[in-house]
Amino acid sequence: MESAQAEKAGGAEPSVPSAPPSSRAGAGAATSRRPLWALAAGWVATRTLIVLMVAGVLRIADTDVTTDISVIYHSWYEVLRTGTFPLDDVTWQYPPGAALVILAPGLLPWSYLVSFFVICGVVDAAAMALLMRAGSRRGRSYLGGWYWVVGVPLLGPTVYCRYDIIVTALAVAGLLVMMRRPALSGVLLGLGGMVKVWPLLALIGSPRGRRTRRAWTSAVASAAALGFLLTAGMNGAFEFLKFQSERGIEIESVGALPLHFAKLAGAWNGTVTMNYGSVEFLGPWVPVITKVMMGLSVAGFGWLLVWRLRAARWTSATTFDAALCALLVFTATSRVISPQYMIWVVGLSAVCLTVRGSSQRPVAVLVLVTAVLTTMEFPVMFGAVNRSELGGVLVLTARNLLLVVTTVVSAHRLWRSTRRREALTTVVLPAEQVAPSYPVRPGIAYEQDLLDDLTPADRA
Question: Which of 16, 149, 214, 261 fits as disulfide partner to 42, beta carbons 3.0 to 4.6 Å?
Fold first, then answer.
């Protein structure tokens, strides 16, 4: 009808019939699937590089990072399969749940080394799928998935040669479900805590009220249940705790920097040796530095407690932001900072970036730079770091100082994002000055939500 009238009025072109709703829905679905295909392709490309590195086809350093699997992990496997923990091996420094990870490659038909790589790849893909699913939700972002695609390979072959990527995936899964299923979140984080302790730190940001009670209770219950089963079924589940008091200062930690520079200046006569599973400084000043680092850890976690008690605003991003901040405090003040620790930080940074309102975006950028410096320090220049040569010490110093700065920035931004905003002042105008009211279309709020959901690329 309108088309006919238009032709009579002035020979205008007839309007083109609109596409049926089914075709419009199909076009929208195809558009929404494009980021997922791009993310999947990016993951495959970057993980191919990691596989080439661990296979020795693409080498970035002379250090063979696979020996931890083929020698240390495999020797633990041989002991654990007999029903006992490695009681005589002081390099076993992990909670009893780690035994399940070490035993898992034995269930696969390939060699222990290849089976371990396969498990790491599958877990990596699972974490990627979780981040992609989180990014597809309304009001969320695919940036977390892209961060995982880019951030993990920056750590080189180490990511598939340590079991930390498995623990990170547990923490990622636990955090992503905390808002909707806090009990399941607590179970996952509790299990992660029994494998390598630090996932329990993610509970610091659990939303107040019923969600916190459910998450914390289920975390304690799952950790206690797994610990009981492993203690009852195997011998020496918690013997590793006896070794912790005799540790030195690991050469890659923040606390090791004064000893590196003192050694460069010829003012330190201690020893550098393999001690309790890592290369550590032993000798003068080590006990003092150990106490200082422990004091900084206590102070950091004390600040986190004060933050939680005083936080006035809680958004969907606060839970993730607080978990990342707590992990950074734990890492920066630890007397042991192995290169695989950065896998944890990359994982939680990716979780933060799935929420558009995260306060930790600048922190995530700093984490990427820290990851690059970590790979430069290990495995590329680890020999120079081990010998306290100037080049290695400078790279390590840059990495550690940037890690400290990243921690401070994270804490500052977390505090600011949750402080109480100033109350707005209401001004009552005389009747003759009141602005005329205009009708507001009922669908405007819905349309704004749709706009908020669009990425910059979609808006363009």
Answer: 149
